[in-house]
Amino acid sequence: MDSSHDISQPGTQADLPPRPSPAYQVIIEGAERPWRSPTITIAQVRALARWDVRQAVVEVDLETSTETTPDTTRPVTLRPAAEFARKIRFTDGLG
Predict the structure, then answer these.
(1) Which of 25, 24, 28, 46 is nearest to 85 (CA)?
(2) What is the pLDDT of residues 60-95, one digit of tens each?
(3) What count of other Cβ atoms lies within 10 Å of the Cβ of residue 45?
């Protein structure tokens, strides 16, 4: 056996397979973020975006421009042409 691959010997390393590259891209307000799972939770979206935990999140279909509010208790299955964005509400400030 070649002693350079004997991990019990000091100064040697085991042959490790290369780490797989991220299989998915999560788009958050136009910025692509690598992701390794076919699903993501809304809490994970907020963490990736560094948004406040109280920030409402919408899923935007980039092909139809429709918005949906994902269920915060269930993971979202990632699919092509989908993006996440903050839900912002404007008011007139009068009152």
Answers:
(1) 28
(2) 888 888 888 899 899 998 887 677 877 655 444 454
(3) 22
pTM above 0.90, yes or no: no
Give the DSSP letter of residue 23.
S
- What are the helix (H) ranges across the chain? 42-49
Number of domains in the chain: 1
* Residues belonging to the chain: 95
Is residue 16 in a domain? Answer: no
- Burial of residue 76 (CB within 10 Å: 0-12, 13-18, 19+) is buried
- CB count within 10 Å of CB 46 equals 20
Domain limits for position 70? 24-86
Residue 43 is predicted with a pLDDT of 93
Spatial separation of the C-alpha atoms in residues 52 and 57, rounded to whole Å: 11
Residue type for position 12: T
